[in-house]
Structures are given as structure tokens and as C-alpha cells.
Design goal:
With 215 residues, this protein is α/β, with parallel strands linked by helices. It contains nine helices and eight strands. The strands form two sheets. Strands 2-3-1-4-8 form a five-stranded parallel beta sheet.
Length: 215
């Protein structure tokens, strides 16, 4: 299966991608993971990307697409993959189409969700500064003294989870990534799921879509 999980930050894409990656034994692929791996390995593309990121600039589409092409050619992608949060723009989607040619994406799972719920989810997130464990003030709060129950580290709110930053991230998403909904809808491979519900309900919706694709 060749799948894209599409949606705003905080919609639960990563959590669901991890589950279905394990269920179907196919890799969960994100541009962040690819960039980190390329930088770590010291590849030519990794070196280029590192210098760009260190300068505080966005890695251009041509480098991202080359990294995607290389990653999708690896052995573990032979039976499929889940692209988590990629593509982010129409230009990237068109580049991906050129890479895949006849092996087109079979399903784009669009996580449709209320904007206010996303803001609530992300601003409620807390993380242990020591072990990195994620808490949520609503569903899984830390101890009252903000100490991690796993390692004893201090539990903090990351800057990118503060409300102003979250709203800015959503604005960027609306401007750059939301047009992909129309792009894939016109291709006929977009499946909207209600991401407002609990994890198990969202998972069941995705499962129904993927079952039909496999059948």
C-alpha cells in the first residue's frame, strides 16, 4: 500500500501512522526522519540540507524530493509505505507524482478536524525535559508538581506548543498544505475521515478505508 496521511498539526496523524506502519509492516516516512537520517549518515544531500538548516532556512523542494526518491527506493518500501506529513505543498505533490510515475499513491487519508480542537490538543501538550515523554493536560496529565512519573525530570511546555505559535503553525498549514485536499480530491484518491473523535474511532475509520484498498 502506498498511502499519504494528510492533515494539520495535532490531528493525530503520527500516532495513527505508527499504528498502521506496524500493522501492515510498512515504513512510516516523514521528511523530518529522512533529513535527520541523511544528516547523520553524512550523505551529499545530508550535508547540503544540514548547511541550509543551520543557516535557518527551509530545505528547498528539489533536495526534499531527492531525499524522498532515495528513501522510497529502499528495500523496506517494496511492499508500500505511509508518508506522514509529506507532501506539504502542491509543488511537492507534483514532484512526488513524477517520482512515482505508474506506482501512484493509492489513498490519501485526510484527517478532517475542528481547528479549535487542534489548538486545545496542542496547547495541552507537555513534555519531559529529560526523557522526552509526552503528557497531555486533558487526557494524561503529569503529576501536580510537574515532575515526570517515568524518570523524575521536569515537565515543560515547548515553545512550539504555546497558543500563539500553534495558531501561526495552523495559518502556515492553511496557506501551504490545505490546497492539497483539492489536489487529491480531483485525482479521486482522497478519503476524508473525522479526526475529532477518540483514537479508536479514528483508527476504525482508517481501517475501513485501507481494507477496501487492499481488497
Amino acid at each position: 500500500m502506498r498511502i499519504i496521511f494528510l492533515g494539520a498539526p495535532g490531528t493525530g496523524k503520527g500516532t495513527q501512522a505508527l499504528y498502521f506502519s506496524k500493522l501492515y509492516a510498512i515504513p512510516q516516512i516523514s521528511t523530518g526522519e529522512i533529513l535527520r537520517d541523511a544528516v547523520k549518515k553524512g550523505t551529499e544531500l545530508g550535508k547540503k540540507a544540514k548547511s541550509i538548516m543551520e543557516a535557518g532556512d527551509l530545505v528547498p523542494d528539489d533536495i526534499i524530493l531527492q531525499l524522498i526518491r532515495d528513501r522510497l527506493s529502499e528495500q523496506d518500501c517494496r511492499n508500500g509505505y505511509i508518508l506522514d506529513g509529506f507532501p506539504r505543498t502542491i509543488a511537492q505533490a507534483e514532484g512526488l507524482d513524477r517520482i512515482l510515475k505508474d506506482n501512484a499513491i493509492q489513498a490519501v487519508i485526510y484527517f478532517d478536524i475542528d481547528k479549535n480542537l487542534v489548538i486545545s490538543r496542542l496547547t495541552s501538550r507537555r513534555v519531559c525535559s529529560k526523557c522526552g515523554y509526552n503528557y497531555n493536560l486533558i487526557t494524561d496529565p503529569p503529576e501536580t508538581d510537574a515532575i515526570c512519573r517515568r524518570c523524575g525530570g521536569k515537565v515543560i511546555q515547548r515553545d512550539d506548543d504555546k497558543e500563539e505559535t500553534v495558531r501561526n503553525r495552523l495559518q502556515v498549514y492553511e496557506e501551504n498544505t490545505a490546497p492539497l485536499v483539492d489536489y487529491y480530491e480531483k485525482k479521486g484518491n482522497l478519503y476524508k475521515i473525522d479526526a475529532n473523535g477518540v483514537i479508536d474511532d479514528v483508527r476504525a475509520e482508517i481501517q475501513n478505508v485501507l481494507k477496501n484498498i487492499r481488497d
